[in-house]
Design goal:
The longest helix has 17 residues. Helix content is 23%, strand content 22%. It contains 10 helices and 18 strands. The chain folds into 3 domains: 162 residues, RNA polymerase II/Efflux pump adaptor protein, barrel-sandwich hybrid domain (OB fold (Dihydrolipoamide Acetyltransferase, E2P), Beta Barrel); 49 residues, E3-binding domain (Dihydrolipoamide Transferase); 222 residues, Chloramphenicol Acetyltransferase. The chain is α+β, with helices and mostly antiparallel strands. A hairpin with a 2-residue loop joins strand 12 and strand 13. Helix 8 crosses helix 9 and helix 8 crosses helix 10.
Length: 465
């Protein structure tokens, strides 16, 4: 038998640490190659870690809730001699910078470097070289084992055994398991109504009390608690980590690095709202959620082509201004874990139908915490829909490394000048913040008026392309 250690891998996001959320195995469990053994939370996503070895769990080095540095060992395995897979560099499957600027490798460059086969979401190659298919859903299906831990390990160094009932939890997705932990719900007591007994978010809603009900108790709850005997703490302290920590650092860096300037423009979007209603009734958009965000995204892509400087980056190290020939459109999404900005790759090459579908999938994945590292990096320009919170206008902070962000305000029925008279129209305010090192006021104004022209009269699109 050979003892092999598993170090926390680089998750491909340029991060130096992650929080260990939960173990899906215990000391003594026999695991298969690529079996999910743990969940970790990075600054951007909740990620499942597959086992790089087939063998027996010898020791777990970190407790749930601990912050672990990349490269630090988190578990060790007893692996039978000859069962250790050959070192390989698996295909990450995530686009890189070279996707738009390919660089040819030297003729004598090695095809792959030998190293331990560790990759989030994809385990090392199985026998025969074929990669196992990535499951559409991954479940906590680690089976308990009666195998004993190696005698060479001292008793105090062992991680505590996880009770059998805890290891045999019903199948569920990582976001659902996280939500259950936050609400104190034991998944073993839930009957899943999803496919093949999958425990869904709706099942938790039926089983537990919503956080809002706990934070703002109604009169009956307050009466039951009794006057002066409230169990609510006077203050609550939450560690700054994960998405919140990453977002805070990024926003501070952006605010004090790029000189922000802002502009606002209020427009009549009645024609666009009427267009959206027509599209929703069409057969082509029957299975796709088309809304204002998709139309604004399309208008932004067209306006970018007319004013390319808004889609750029200030490279301080190289002392260069990088103007992108493609649009990786970021969408600011508020999630239970904090603000994330996933992006649609090559949004400028998509039709309105393709863009609407991509945006729907992007936002759903962000809210469920299943966004891949690929979509959370590489953005070139962003949109934030503050109107969904009933806000009319604002001055958003730039996503780090980008030159402009567009904020969409709430659409309101208001008296508005229309064809020489006053009429009730659907009105919205556009707000932009931009990096004044890269964009002058004239360029910013041209960009926002182009977006406004399309939204005020979608027919203007014919004069711009």
């Amino acid at each position: 038998m050979t003892v092999k250690e598993f170090a926390l891998p680089d998750l491909g996001e340029g991060l130096t640490e992650s929080e260990l959320v939960a173990w899906r195995v215990a000391v003594g469990d026999v695991v298969e190659l690529n079996q999910i053994i743990a969940e970790v939370e990075t600054a951007k996503a909740l990620v499942e870690l597959p086992s790089p070895f087939a063998g027996t769990i010898a020791e777990l080095f970190a407790e749930p809730g601990a912050t672990v540095a990349v490269g630090a060992p988190i578990a060790s395995f007893d692996v039978a001699d000859g069962e250790v897979p050959d070192g390989a560099v698996p295909d990450v499957g995530a686009p890189s910078v070279e996707e738009h600027n390919p660089v040819e490798a030297p003729p004598d460059a090695p095809v792959a470097l030998e190293r331990e086969p560790v990759l989030v979401g994809y385990g090392p190659p199985v026998e025969g070289g074929a990669r196992p298919k990535r499951r559409a859903r991954t479940f906590s299906d680690a089976a308990p084992s009666t195998a004993a831990a190696p005698e060479s390990l001292s008793e105090p160094a062992r991680a505590p055994e996880v009770p059998k009932a805890q290891r045999e939890q019903p199948r569920s997705t990582p976001p659902v398991r996280k939500l259950a932990r936050e609400r104190g719900i034991d998944l073993a007591t839930i009957v899943g109504t999803g496919e093949d007994g999958l425990v869904t978010r709706e099942d938790l809603e039926q089983a537990g009390v919503k956080p809002a009900e706990l934070e703002h108790p109604g009169p009956m709850q307050a009466e039951q608690a009794g006057a002066g005997t409230s169990t609510r703490p006077r203050e609550t302290r939450t560690p700054i980590r994960g998405v919140r920590k990453h977002t805070a650092a990024a926003m501070v860096s952006s605010a004090f690095t790029a000189p922000h300037a802002s502009e606002f423009l209020t427009i009549d979007v009645t024609p666009t709202m009427e267009l959206i209603e027509k599209l929703r009734g069409g057969r082509e958009f029957a299975t796709v959620r088309v809304g204002l965000l998709a139309v604004v995204a399309k208008a932004l892509c067209i306006a970018v082509a007319r004013t390319p400087s808004v889609n750029s980056r200030w490279d301080d190290d190289a002392q260069e201004i990088v103007v992108y020939g493609y649009v990786n459109l970021g969408i600011a999404a508020a999630t239970p874990r904090g603000l994330v900005v996933p992006n649609v790759k090559d949004a400028d090459r998509m039709s309105l139908l393709e863009l609407a579908r991509a945006l729907g999938e992007l936002v759903d994945a962000a809210r469920d915490g299943t966004s891949s590292p690929a979509v959370l990096t590489g953005g070139t320009i962003s949109i934030t829909n503050i109107g969904s919170f009933g806000i009319d206008a604002g001055t958003p902070i730039l996503n780090p490394g980008e030159a402009l962000i567009l904020a969409i305000g709430a659409v309101r029925r208001m008296p508005w000048e229309f064809r020489g008279d006053i009429a009730l129209r659907q009105v919205m305010t556009l707000s932009i913040s931009f990096d004044h090192r890269l964009i002058d006021g004239e360029q910013a104004s041209r960009f926002i008026t182009d977006v406004a022209a399309i939204l005020s009269d979608p027919g203007m699109l014919l004069t711009m392309v």
